[in-house]
């Protein structure tokens, strides 16, 4: 989209004039005088921002003007386009919904940066000068009459935003931040750091994928002789809780991926603290009850579609004692990033389209999802955008060889640099539906374990445990947190469990099955009634 800025059009368009044309026309009685034109321009430009384009009339949506030092300047969008006031650029006609408006909606800004403070300590000024409590700014609710308290809220301008990382004050075990991606916890030499790999699976656990999990995790061992572990971000609908109970028994980590998995992506961006609580804390109530998990180990959250819920999500997590989130993606970079705590400002851009990252300080770990490099030959190919979920790294089905190379390349990006934990984030279908891809993955797993005495496949919580108490590879054979549920023998708690057939008023007309080793609930557990008791 090109901008045509032709000052001459403005003059013709306006019927008013300045500069040379005015002088030439000054003699004509019907034309405005120089003073009148100036006054008109002044009035027009009084409330316009620098460089702001606006419409003089509503005749043609392609035409706009702006105020400049040299007077008014006009722009006409090319044919087929219209001027989009909100985006301040020429845009496809169908995208432009503001042809009936003369100017961009005015957003009143708060008066945060004045030479003399306008308010007493701990108060800040709304756009109209009213002083309100500083904490009310950017809290998701309008408190100023002009709503200006919610208008300047990105991480750099939120008056309550988390401070920039101060490594002197942010110390392990409770706090970890960095201003330089090359840093390693405890300033360890990377060659002494174990290469941790976190395999995760998202969505429902059920008979569609439980065989796959057995194939991957059965009889594979870390260098400390314990079975390799992974993390499951479980969404509620269609989940088989006797299968979840067995994954937990075997030492895998169960984390929460919401109850509804609502496919309205903006819902997750904008959800209120209560909605977040119902989805995630409610999801934990369901998992704990129906998979009988009683060891308080469900402490992780990943939001559906990797939509970050901003301060509302993280505030809910802090209040409900969720220790970590693994939803935020960091753009592809070398070296990749270590996980960090959110007491201080996040160390990377809020990555992704229209994402809502937290700006305030939270007692929550971010198990950041480092984007992967999808190129087959990274040294010679041009840059391509990264990808967070493994299945999103391939626009076409990869061959076994391509997938194997992808794993090796990305492993090296971690192992040969700062040894940040490497995440392999799957949806089960990617491996399940393609035996060749699964074979390539298992081959890479076996090869990696056989060749590297310093590579461990661990859960998200085990990564945090290591970061809180960093130990060199030589100490890891007897490192207690990684010995837990080392090799679990014996049969599952129950085989299959009861397949409860249930419904709920919250999902009218649907009958759903919930398999569990525990007693069947009265109703299908859902947002308002996570225990399925039948009253809410
Ligand atoms: Zn999902």
TrEMBL record:
Keyword ATP-binding: no
Pfam families the record matches: CBM_14, Ldl_recept_a, Polysacc_deac_1
GO terms for MF: chitin binding; chitin deacetylase activity
GO terms classed as biological process: carbohydrate metabolic process
Disulfide bonds: 119-131, 126-144, 138-153
InterPro entries from the UniProt entry: CE4, Chitin-bd_dom, Chitin-bd_dom_sf, Glyco_hydro/deAcase_b/a-brl, LDL_receptor-like_sf, LDLR_class-A_CS, LDrepeatLR_classA_rpt, NODB_dom
Cleavable signal peptide: 1-19
Domain of life: Eukaryota
Coiled coil spans: none
EC number in record: 3.5.1.41
A cellular-component GO term for this protein: extracellular region
Keyword field: Disulfide bond, Hydrolase, Signal
Domain Chitin-binding type-2: 42-101
CDD domains: CE4_CDA_like_1, LDLa
Enzyme class, broadest EC rank: hydrolase
PANTHER family: FI03450P (PTHR45985:SF6), PTHR45985
The protein's name in its UniProt record: Chitin deacetylase 1
Organism: Palaemon carinicauda
Organism phylogeny: Eukaryota, Metazoa, Ecdysozoa, Arthropoda, Crustacea
């Amino acid at each position: 989209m090109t901008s045509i800025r032709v000052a001459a059009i403005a003059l013709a368009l306006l019927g008013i004039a300045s500069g040379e044309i005015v002088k030439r026309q000054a003699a004509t009685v019907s034309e405005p005088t120089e003073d009148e034109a100036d006054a008109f321009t002044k009035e027009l430009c009084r409330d316009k921002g620098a460089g702001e384009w606006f419409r003089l009339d509503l005749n043609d949506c392609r035409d706009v003007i702006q105020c400049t030092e040299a007077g008014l300047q006009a722009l006409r969008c090319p044919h087929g386009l219209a001027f989009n006031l909100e985006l301040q650029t020429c845009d496809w006609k169908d995208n432009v919904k503001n042809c009936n408006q003369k100017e961009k909606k005015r957003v009143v800004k708060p008066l945060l940066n004045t030479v003399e403070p306008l308010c007493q300590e701990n108060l800040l000024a709304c756009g109209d000068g009213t002083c309100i409590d500083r904490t009310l700014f950017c809290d998701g609710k309008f408190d100023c009459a002009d709503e200006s308290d919610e208008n300047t809220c990105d991480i750099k301008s939120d008056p309550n935003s988390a401070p920039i990382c101060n490594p002197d004050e942010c110390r392990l075990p409770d706090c970890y931040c960095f201003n330089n991606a090359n840093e390693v916890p405890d300033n360890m030499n990377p060659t002494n750091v174990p290469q941790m790999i976190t395999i995760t699976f998202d969505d429902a656990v059920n008979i569609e994928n439980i065989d796959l999990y057995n194939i991957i995790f059965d009889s594979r061992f870390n260098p400390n002789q314990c079975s390799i572990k992974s993390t499951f971000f479980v969404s509620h609908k269609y989940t088989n809780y006797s299968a979840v109970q067995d994954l937990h028994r075997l030492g895998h980590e169960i984390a929460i991926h919401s109850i509804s998995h609502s496919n309205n992506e903006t819902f997750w961006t904008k959800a209120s603290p209560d909605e977040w609580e119902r989805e995630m804390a409610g999801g934990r109530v369901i998992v704990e009850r129906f998979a009988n998990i009683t060891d308080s180990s469900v402490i992780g959250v990943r939001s559906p579609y990797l939509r970050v819920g901003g301060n509302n999500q993280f505030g809910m997590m802090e209040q409900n004692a969720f220790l970590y989130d693994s939803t935020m993606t960091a753009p592809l970079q070398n070296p990749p990033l270590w996980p960090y705590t959110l007491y201080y400002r996040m160390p990377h851009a809020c990555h992704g389209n229209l994402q809502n990252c937290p700006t305030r300080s939270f007692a929550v770990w971010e198990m950041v999802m480092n984007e992967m490099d999808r190129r087959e030959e990274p040294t010679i190919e041009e840059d391509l955008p990264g990808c967070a979920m493994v299945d999103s790294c391939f626009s076409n089905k990869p061959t076994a060889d391509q997938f194997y190379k992808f794993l090796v390349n990305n492993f090296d990006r971690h192992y040969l640099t700062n040894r940040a934990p490497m995440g392999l984030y799957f949806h089960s279908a990617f491996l399940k539906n393609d035996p060749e891809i699964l074979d390539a993955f298992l081959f890479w797993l076996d090869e990696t374990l056989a060749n590297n005495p310093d590579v461990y496949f661990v859960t998200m919580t085990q990564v945090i445990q290591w970061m809180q108490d960093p130990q060199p590879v030589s100490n890891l054979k007897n490192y207690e947190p990684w010995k837990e549920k080392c090799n679990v023998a014996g049969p599952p708690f129950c085989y299959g469990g009861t397949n409860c057939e249930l419904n709920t008023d919250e999902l009218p007309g649907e009958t759903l099955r919930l398999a569990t080793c525990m007693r069947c609930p009265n109703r299908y557990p859902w947002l308002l009634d996570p225990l399925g008791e039948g009253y809410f």
